[in-house]
Amino acid sequence: MAITWGTIKSLSLFFGPILLPKALAYYRSLRAAPSIHGIPIRPVPPNVSRALLILTLTTLIFLLSTLPPFAPTNIFTLTSSRLQISTDVLFTRLSTLRPLIPTDEILRSKISSIESRYLFFQFGPDVLTNCQFCKAEDPNSYLYYSLPSLLAPHLFNLCVLALVTSGLFTGKEAAMWRTTATLAAGAMMLIDTYFVATYDYKANARALRLEDIDFFFWKMRVWRGIGLAFVDGMLGWLLYLSSTNRAFLTPPSTAERVEASTRMLDVVRSKMSAMGILRNTINRDAELRARSQGYWVHEGRVMGELMQEREVVDGVRNALDGRINMATIRADAETYAQSVIAPSQVPGMNGNI
To answer: What confidence tier does 353 reach under pLDDT thresholds 50, 70, 90?
Structure first.
C-alpha cells in the first residue's frame, strides 16, 4: 500500500508536537556537553577537512544533477503534447524541434500503446528504449531492468560515505559517524526503491491535459538528488560539530582520565627531578653557588629597603587590616609543613631519612 502525502502530513501533525520538543532538548544537551566537561572548542582537524571537502563536492554534484539540463528529455513536455496524442503526430512535432536520432525511432515503437506511455512516465525514456525483454503486459520487468540505474547513485553515495568515515582516512573523529551514515544511506536507498516499486503507473489514466500528467520519473530524479545531497550535507555538519568539540561530544572514559592524570604526574615528576638535579649542580659548583647566594642577598636587601618605605608600610597595613587572621595562617602553615615532612619520616629512624 502506497503512503500518500496526506498520510505523511497527518502523521507529522500528530507526532510533531511530541517529538520536536524532545529533539530540541536532546540537541541542546549535546551542544552543552563541551562546557559541562570543560573541553575547549578547537579548529577543524586536517583529516576532517578532507572529508568535508569531499562531502561538499558530492553534495554539489547531487544538487546539479537535479537541474533540467542533466535530465533525460521528456518528449511530451518538449512538444507540449497530451498523453492521448497519436504517436506519429508526437514524433512529427519532435522532428520539427530537432532531428530524430535512432533512439527516438526505438522509443516510437515502444510507446505506441497507452499502457507503455504510463510506464514511460514511471521509468523514463532510457528504460523503455534500452530494455529488450520488457513488455507492457509485465510492468515489473521494467522495474527489474531499472534497478541498476536506480541504485547506482545510492551505491556511489554509500562508497563516498564509507570513505569519509573511514578511520584510516579521516581518523576517529569521522569514524564515530560510520554507522549513522551507513544507516541513512541504506534508508534512502530503500525509500527510493519503495516509492518507485509501489507507484501506481495508471494514475495518469485520467490526465486529459499536459498539466494533469504526473511526471513521476522526473520528479523522483529531483527528490533523489535533493535527498542524497541532504544526507551528505547533514553528515558534513555533524562532522564539523563533533570534530571541533561544539556538540556530540563523547566524554573520556574513566580509564582515559586515569591515563591522562598519570601522564601529567609523570611530566610533573620529571620536571621536579630536573629541578633537583639543577639545584644539586648549583650547590656543588663554587662559582654557581656564589652567584646564587649573591642573587638572594641582593634580592633580600632590595625587598628590605622597599618594605621600609612609609608608603609601602601604610599600603600593606591598610590592605591587610581586618582581612587576615594570623592564627588561621599559622595553623594552615603548620598543617602544610606537617603534610610535607610527614611522608619523609620513617618509623624507628627518629624522623631521619
So the answer is: very low
3-state secondary structure (DSSP) of residue 261 = helix
195 sits in which H/E element: helix 178-198
Residue with the three cell numbers 499536459: 210
From CA 304, how far away is CA 319, in angstroms rounded?
Answer: 19
d(CA 298, CA 53): 62
Taking the model in full, what pTM does it have? 0.67
Mean pLDDT over each residue of the chain, to the nearest integer: 84
CA dist., res. 230 & res. 236, Å (int)? 10
Q: Per-residue pLDDT tens for 37-76?
A: 566 778 888 888 999 999 999 999 999 999 999 999 899 9
Q: State how far the alpha carbon of 153 is from the alpha carbons of 59, 69, 156, 190, 264, in Å.
A: 12, 18, 5, 13, 50
Give Cα 123 to chain centroid, integer Å.
34
Strand partners, 135: 138
Block residue for cell numbers 525483454? 133
Confidence grade of residue 352 (pLDDT, cut at 50, 70, 90)? very low
220: which residues sit within 8 A by CB, 6+ positions away? 192, 195, 196
Own/partner long-range contacts of 197-206 (Cβ < 8 Å, ≥24 apart):
197/143, 198/1, 198/2, 199/2, 199/122, 200/2, 201/118, 201/119, 201/121, 201/122, 201/139, 202/118, 204/83, 204/117, 204/118, 204/121, 205/114, 205/118
- Rounded Cα–Cα distance for residues 125 and 111 (Å): 10
Distance from C-alpha of 55 to C-alpha of 228, rounded to nearest angstrom: 11
| Structure-model confidence comparison of residues 137 and 9, the more confident one | 137
